[in-house]
Amino acid sequence: ALAWARASAKCLNFNSMLILLPVCRNLLSFLRGTCSCCRRTLRKQLDHNLTFHKLVAYALALLTAVHTIAHLFNLERYNQSQQATDRSLPAVLSKMHLQDNKWLNPIHSNHTTVEYVTFTTIPGLTGVIITLALILMVTSSTEFIRRNYFEVFWYTHHLFIIYFAGLLFHGIAGLVRGQTEKSMAEVHPHRCALNLTHRDQNCSHDCCKDPEFGSIPAESWKWVLAPILLYIFERILRVWRSWQKVVVTKVVMHPSRVLELQMNKRGFSMEVGQYIFVNCPTISLLEWHPFTLTSAPEEDFFSIHIRAAGDWTESLIDTFQQQKPEMPRIKVDGPFGTASEDVFQYEVAMLVGAGIGVTPFASILKSIWYKFQQADQTLKTKKIYFYWLCRDTGAFAWFNDLLASLEQKMAESGKADFLTYRLFLTGWDTSIVNNVALHFDTATDTVTGLRHKTIFGRPMWNSEFAAVAAAHPRSVVGVFLCGPAALAKSLQRSCQQYSSLDPRKVKFYFNKENF
């Protein structure tokens, strides 16, 4: 079992080195910027940082179980060897050097139990603490907990501090020991093991000397020191940025309890599709929540749209609705890069938003509006298909003005076919349907007031992808999603199905927002 314990320990050290890197968001944003000239497939790997983080966490949980079970077997064998009264090799080795520091068996008494060693030694106690911290972090990271009890996920995840502190101290006591190099040269186990159990009092050859044992040096700190220092620097940078003053310049309450905050911050610079972390000390000093920026880089402010989707967002919306003389203080950390930054690298882009998931595309479409206004000739993108899925009509309201402005601006520029958008209403009642039926022949949609009519139901993605592939047979199409996992699977499957094997023909690349 010692081989299992040692092998899993090496793997634990390696995975502990990796676990912090995917959540160093400044590092990822820096790499995304420096990899802008790299291949598209290489940059896309950075978008899977949270998936990689979860895989490493699952590996840690599995390896911890293997390591713990293996050491429980080891301790039980140590205990049996100490209590044995025969002349077997484990029994003989267990009785050696009990008065000095050259022993092999950490259990020196017949009255010592496995439980006693587990809870009174540094390796045992730190191992228990590390395991408990890991169990709490993994179990509180499930989709159900994160969606419904985010605070539980947030606070228990900070047990990683205890995990790494325990890991650094776990091996320093040297509970697992081995024969020293000097002793190996003098009393090699292959040559002398049999002699230990059968030697007499007058032994005079080389193997008569007792083997000496020493602790195996702790190695965990060598693996995790660099990632810990990198993460500490990351946190210091984020704390410094969060202390910089943020001025809320405008507050707008949209239908469906969507709050828009427009803000200014000195030195703030953004790209399309990026996101920030927001903290409101009035609600919680420690909780930070990610929100996609809905403003364009060309604007002199940055904005976010917040939908009521939990205790914290409900409290934030209520706080701003109270209309107090003094505006609630807001802290901002970021911005950080996402997959949507690459949207203008594609000739054709398909943007898919579900509900409030439309926010990154608001930034993109606003930026396009400014590019048309400034007659930007460097715009590589020739065509955008925009799909927005909503459950209720109120969700369309805050985005209508932007789409209407885009329609008008593109018509004036002679590029009315640049943007094709489809709005899908997935939840409706008979009153809405009757109203639409009565005004079916009107030029504008009765739900949104836009030229394109709202479609009732969900998109038929096979038809949509087939139409795009037929319209752009030799283009590279970027598919961008901000929405649920089920929709992501469907779009990813369609991307694979409708991409041609011929590199000269149409190719779909799937990109999903991950916070």
Automatic annotation (TrEMBL):
Write down the CDD domains for this protein, in alphabetical order: NOX_Duox_like_FAD_NADP (cd06186)
* Official protein name in the record: NOX1 oxidase
Q: Which SUPFAM superfamilies match?
A: Ferredoxin reductase-like, C-terminal NADP-linked domain, Riboflavin synthase domain-like
Q: Which residues cross the membrane?
A: 52-73, 116-140, 152-176
Q: Where is it predominantly found?
A: membrane
Where, per UniProt, does this protein localize? Cell membrane
- Gene name of the record: Nox1
Its record classes its membrane topology as: Multi-pass membrane protein
Biological process (GO) annotations? defense response; superoxide anion generation
